[in-house]
Amino acid sequence: MIAGATASLRPAGIGRYFTAAFLSVWLVGWVVGEAVALIALAAILGSMSGLFSGQLPAWPADLVNGGGAGFVIIFLLIWLTFWTVGGIGAATHLLRSLFGEDLIVLSGSGLEVVRRAGPFRRRYPFERSAIRRLRSRPRDKALVVDTDRGTQVLTVLGSPQEREAVRDWLRQYLQLPDEDAVAATGAAPATWEVTIEGDTTYLRKVQPRVRAVRSLISWLMTGAMAMGWRGSVDADSAAGSIPALMLTLLVAVGAATSTWGRREWIVRPGELTFRWHLAMWTSERTFKSARLEVTHHTDSDDDSHYKLVVVDNQGRRAVHNQMNDSGEIVDLAHWLAGRTGFPLTLAGVERSGASG
Q1: Which of 154, 188, 197, 355 could disulfide-link to 179, CB 3.0 to 4.6 Å?
Q2: Do 203 and 328 belong to one domain?
Q3: End of a domain among 98, 115, 131?
Q4: Is residue 10 a part of any domain in this protein?
Q5: What is the pLDDT of residues 141-199, one digit of tens each?
Q6: What CATH number should be reported for the domain holding residue 131?
């Protein structure tokens, strides 16, 4: 498994064959659904353009004449996007379950992971300077790496014992800092926007670039839905125009909130403030003489849910939630405790979730 500067991990366990059988059946249904949606979309577009009108059934023309074609086209495009992505992900997982391999290669600058799914390969480099910690994720014992860009999975292949051996081997080679020191210092999530001004730190869960892209997509969807609603109104289809209008308004509200809304935490020594902006309106809630808690519970599907909350004598508020991996949330808790001076309680959180 480990040879020199290379470690190779392959699928293990009989459970992968049951997963592969399920995915094979599901992918048959996926192909059927993909084909039906593409044929329906092509029929509507063909009817709108007048192409092949003699070979098309009557329903696309009826839909176009009734004014509902725009709404159906938007629905099909959104559905096809998610359906296609889901199918590609399922096919990749199927190939990984049967013919996968993760090759971890050491280099002078850090390490590189080569993931294989059948004949397909992808390379993921990791610079040593960006790596904070290597650990085993509590729920599935996946080998993950905490970097300055967030937590990423190195491998889920091999047995838990093989992954632990690779983890120890990498820790020794990379000469990572003491795990207790890393855990005690903590860190804000790499995907958050962090702005420091003297003793004040501003935390926002959504970075400006992500917000801009999300808002642009939301407004494009609003425009497309508005066109579909306008088409239904022009066709005097009152029954079809009301649902289209309500959905358009709902998406418009979401786009406006994404564009002009801001949620942030303001961190100062001795206090933690939650602030919510929406255009000219602002709401604030400040916690003083408070404490921080990380709670854990397991749902009916055996998924672990971790929550970081701040509590004072007037109430409590969630700061961050995380599912199946407490590493990021425990890091944030220690980081906030160090900057506010609030006491921290880790209620029922396994230490392996933070440090592996």
Answers
A1: 355
A2: yes
A3: 98
A4: no
A5: 899 998 888 889 999 999 999 999 999 999 888 888 766 666 677 888 888 999 999 89
A6: 2.30.29
